Amino acid sequence: MPEPSTVVITGAGTGIGAACARLYAAEGANLVLIGRRREPLEQLSEEIGGLVLVGDAACPATWDGFVAQIRQRFGRLDVLLACAGGLGQGSVTDTSPSAWEAALRSNLDSAFYSARACLPLLMESAGNIVFVASIASLAAGPQVCGYTTAKHALLGLSRSLARDYGPRGMRVNAVCPGWVRTPMADEEMQALMQFHGENLQQAYARACADVPLGRPASAEEIARVCRFLASADASIITGATLVADGGSSIVDVPTLAFSRMEQANA
After folding, report:
1. Domain boundaries, the chain
2. Closest Cα partner for 129 from 167, 93, 77?
3. Within 10 A of 146 (CB to CB), how many other CB atoms are there?
4. Looking at domain 6-179+216-265, which CATH architecture does it have?
5. How far apart are CA 260 and CA 266, in angstroms?
6. Residue 218: φ, ψ to 5°
7. Which of 132, 179, 200, 222 has fewest C-beta within 10 Å?
8. pLDDT digits (tens, 9 = 90+) for 185-233
9. DSSP letter assigned to residue 249
10. What are the strands of the beta sheet with 171-177, ordered from one edge?
C-alpha cells in the first residue's frame, strides 16, 4: 500500500483550515494542525487525529521546532495548505502602523514563512503548496486596505514560488474564495445585521444578492478545491489562481443598476 501523505495546515483550528483537515483525515492522511490557539486545535485533533503544533505561523523562529517535529514524526511532507489569515480593516488614513503590520503579518508573512520553512521537506517529495487567498486578491473592497494589499501580494508569492521551484517538481497554487460561511465571516456580517435589523442568514443573503449563485460557499466546498489543486488530478497546474466565489468576480458592476431595474419590473 502507498504511504499516507503528510499534510500541514496552518490556521487549522476553524473555518477553511478545519474543513481541509477533516477532508484529508477522511482519506487517511497524516495531519499537522498548526494555529495560535490551542483549544480549537486540540478539539479538532480529538475528533480526527493529527499532530497539534501551537504557534504563530508568521514567526520564523517558531518553524524551526515545527519542521523538526514534522520530520521526526512523519519523515516526509507532501502538502502545505496555508490557510492562516486575518482581517486588515480601515482605509489608508485609518490604518495605524501597528494595524498595517498586523494585516501583513497575518495574511502574508504567515504564508511566506510557512512556505520557506516547509520547502526542504516538500522538495524531497515533489510536494504541493496551496495558499488560501481571497477575491480581495483580485479587487478592492471598501475600508480593507491592509487585507486587500496583503492578499494581492499573496498571489505574487504563489507565482514566485511556482516559478522558482517548479523545475524541482513542486507545484504552488492559490485559491480565491468569495464569501465563505466561517466564524470570521460571521463576525463581518454583524455590521449588516445591526444596520438592517436582520439575522445572520439574511445578512449573508444580502451580501450575496449580486453573486450569480446567490449564496456563500461552505468551508467544505473550499476545502475540496484546495484538495483538488494539491492532487494528482491537477498535476499540470502550477502558478494558477483558482477563483471559487460563486461567480461574483465575473459580474459587470456598472450594469448592476440595470439588473436591479429589471428585477423590480419582473
Report:
1. 6-179+216-265
2. 77
3. 26
4. 3-Layer(aba) Sandwich (3.40)
5. 10
6. -90, 160
7. 200
8. 999 999 999 999 999 999 999 999 999 999 999 999 999 999 999 999 9
9. G
10. 51-54, 30-35, 6-10, 79-82, 128-132, 171-177, 241-244
Q: Which amino acid is at 97?
A: P
Helices and strands, counts by H and E, the chain: 10, 9
Write out the three cell numbers for 224: 475540496
Q: What is the pLDDT of residues 76-131, one digit of tens each?
A: 999 999 999 988 888 999 999 999 999 999 999 999 999 999 999 999 999 999 99
At residue 254, what are phi and psi to the nearest 5 degrees? -60, -15
Q: What is the number of other CB atoms lying within 10 angstroms of the CB of residue 179?
A: 19
Q: Which of 24, 113, 147, 165 is catalytic?
A: 147
Residue 24 annotated as catalytic = no
Q: What is the DSSP string of 160-222?
A: HHHHHHGGGT-EEEEEEE-SEESHHHHHHHHHHHHHHT--HHHHHHHHTTTSTT-SPEEHHHH
